[in-house]
């Protein structure tokens, strides 16, 4: 495996920690201090790095650091990636080590669970945490960072009552008595008790609004990308109803597409929403081929003319939703006998042009899809790539916080691959699923992917994702996959947990990989930093240390400066 290893930043930078009030109207912004004797390690396999573009505060700042959350295994301090964020909000300019390209102008937003402790109660699963929104604002080679909790009703109620008040991914509020339990079940059917904790993704709509999302429809929350303020609920104005949707809609400046699973009559509504509106309109419906419920659709891909609807044998389970304690697969159930299918729908007509059986699969995230043409330009197949976990559902169990926090050096991360579906459009009842690249190229681990957005739905060559350097219990590298040469370039730093690598193309670029890759790194020593890699060479071009490490985050979006 190719490896580009960088030594961690030393303690040569002294940072002023910003004191932040819990009062949303009060925030002290500050900037890091630094020593005049900066000496960048010469061990890094990158071009010479320099420290640039740092504003000096005009008045001294208090060096107040909130205490660590007491979330530990035995007496061992947890990795900061799996530890609740230190404080509710912070903002400041960071020291840039290296050089940020001057063309990079805008804000990278990253969403994800960041608070797993309420009162004296510790949540159980990575996906339960209350949403922490992080921003990296790039302008003129400078970097201003900040983070803030998304003020969902679930978060505000938990903070006020110091206990869980809504149903999270694996958590259920404890009922005081049987009548309260019956009332809670009634609220579940109405959706009132489901969380609006928008801790999964963040998207910029075509009209400029920025919305944070999760699996529940009520968990759609509008935020200000500059201040990170919570502005309010994103209310859908249609009458389509339903409680859940795909956490990853397809969003461009021109379209918004998503899937609404139907748990009563197993299937999916495929819907679209025009920029500037809150009204979803139905394109068509896919009926499930088998199984008691629709398969989980955390994400789905599209091509230029088609929407690809996966029907995974990991299916929603209403009975598990009703239970007061988590089941092994939480809100889902594995039904291998129900088989697996992929459906292809025409965007324009809503007609299903293919519905094929495929090998069993488990995926959270699709990478991209495109149309394969013959010599005459006729579309013969749809190719859809995803981060596929070898039909192994144990990945959900591995994401329990207890498991993430108890890594002992053993290699326990389940294998994963770039799974490539080949879906023929000639009426064949079967499709194929194969590895697009030798999984050893990326350490047999793959998830949290991005591409050049200009190639969405088109034939493409490069994908960026988190891979693995074994032994590990979680993806711990960044990887650039070349789907033509079938090779990967990998970035790795010992003890680091990187979040999703997000690709931002250079304006005017003609090459697919001409741009930068942004990631946020959580370090085992409790620190963390923002990282920029060259999209082509995959070598480090800049990093900027946070005043303290941030918990692991999930998905992000880019908001360009206009």
TrEMBL record:
It comes from the Eukaryota. GO terms for molecular function: metal ion binding; oxidoreductase activity, acting on single donors with incorporation of molecular oxygen, incorporation of two atoms of oxygen. It holds the Pfam family RPE65. The keyword Oxidoreductase applies. InterPro entries: Carotenoid_Oase. Binds 1 Fe(2+) ion per subunit. Fe cation binds at residues 248, 298, 365, 555. Keywords: Dioxygenase, Iron, Metal-binding, Oxidoreductase. Its cofactor is Fe(2+). PANTHER family: BETA-CAROTENE DIOXYGENASE (PTHR10543), CAROTENOID ISOMEROOXYGENASE (PTHR10543:SF24). Belongs to the carotenoid oxygenase family. This is Carotenoid cleavage dioxygenase 8 homolog B, chloroplastic-like. It comes from Juglans regia (English walnut).
């Amino acid at each position: 495996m190719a490896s580009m290893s960088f030594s961690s930043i030393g303690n040569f930078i002294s940072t002023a920690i910003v004191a932040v009030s819990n009062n949303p109207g009060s925030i002290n912004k500050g900037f890091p201090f630094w020593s005049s004797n900066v000496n960048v390690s010469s061990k890094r396999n990158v071009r010479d790095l320099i420290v640039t573009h740092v504003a000096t505060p005009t008045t001294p700042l208090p060096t107040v650091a909130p205490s660590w959350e007491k979330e530990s295994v035995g007496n061992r301090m947890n990795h900061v990636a799996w530890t609740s964020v230190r404080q509710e909000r912070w903002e400041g300019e960071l020291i840039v080590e290296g050089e940020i390209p001057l063309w990079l102008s805008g804000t990278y937003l990253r969403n994800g669970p960041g608070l797993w402790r309420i009162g004296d109660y510790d949540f159980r699963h990575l996906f339960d945490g209350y949403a922490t929104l992080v921003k990296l604002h790039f302008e003129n080679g400078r970097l201003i960072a900040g983070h803030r909790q998304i003020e969902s009703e679930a978060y505000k109620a938990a903070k006020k009552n110091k206990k869980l008040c809504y149903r999270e991914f694996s958590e259920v509020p404890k009922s005081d008595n049987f009548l309260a339990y019956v009332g809670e079940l009634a609220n579940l059917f109405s959706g009132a008790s489901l969380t609006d904790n928008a801790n999964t993704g963040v998207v910029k709509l075509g009209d400029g609004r920025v919305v944070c999302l999760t699996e529940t429809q009520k968990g759609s929350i509008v935020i200000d990308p500059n201040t990170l303020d919570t502005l309010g609920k994103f209310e859908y104005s249609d009458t389509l109803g339903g409680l859940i949707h795909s956490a990853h809609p397809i969003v461009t400046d021109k379209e918004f597409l998503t899937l609404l699973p139907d748990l009563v009559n197993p299937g999916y509504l495929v819907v679209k929403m025009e920029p500037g509106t809150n009204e979803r309109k139905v394109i068509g419906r896919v009926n499930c081929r088998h199984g008691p419920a629709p398969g989980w659709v955390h994400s789905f891909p599209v091509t230029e003319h088609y929407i690809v609807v996966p029907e995974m044998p990991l299916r929603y389970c209403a009975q598990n939703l009703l239970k007061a304690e988590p089941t092994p697969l939480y809100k889902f159930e594995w039904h291998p006998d129900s088989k697996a299918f992929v459906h292809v729908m025409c965007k324009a007509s809503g007609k299903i042009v293919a519905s094929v059986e495929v090998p069993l699969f488990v995926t959270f995230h699709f990478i991209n899809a495109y149309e394969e043409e013959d010599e005459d330009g006729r579309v013969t197949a749809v190719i859809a790539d995803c981060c596929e976990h070898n039909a192994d559902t144990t990945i959900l169990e591995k994401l329990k916080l207890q498991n993430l926090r108890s890594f002992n050096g053993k290699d326990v991360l389940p294998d994963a691959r770039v799974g490539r579906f080949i879906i023929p459009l000639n009426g064949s009842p079967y499709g194929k699923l194969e590895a697009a690249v030798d999984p050893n190229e990326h350490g047999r681990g793959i998830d949290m992917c991005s591409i050049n957005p200009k190639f969405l739905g088109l034939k493409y060559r490069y994908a960026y994702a988190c891979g693995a350097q074994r032994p590990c219990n979680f993806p711990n590298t960044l990887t650039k996959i070349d789907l033509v040469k079938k090779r990967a370039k990998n970035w790795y730093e010992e003890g680091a947990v990187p979040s999703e690598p997000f690709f931002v193309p250079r304006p005017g670029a003609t090459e697919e990989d001409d741009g930068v890759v942004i990631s946020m790194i959580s370090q085992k020593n409790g620190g963390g930093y923002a990282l920029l890699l060259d999209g082509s060479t995959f070598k480090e071009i800049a990093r900027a240390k946070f005043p303290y490490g941030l918990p692991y985050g999930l998905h992000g979006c880019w908001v360009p400066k206009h």
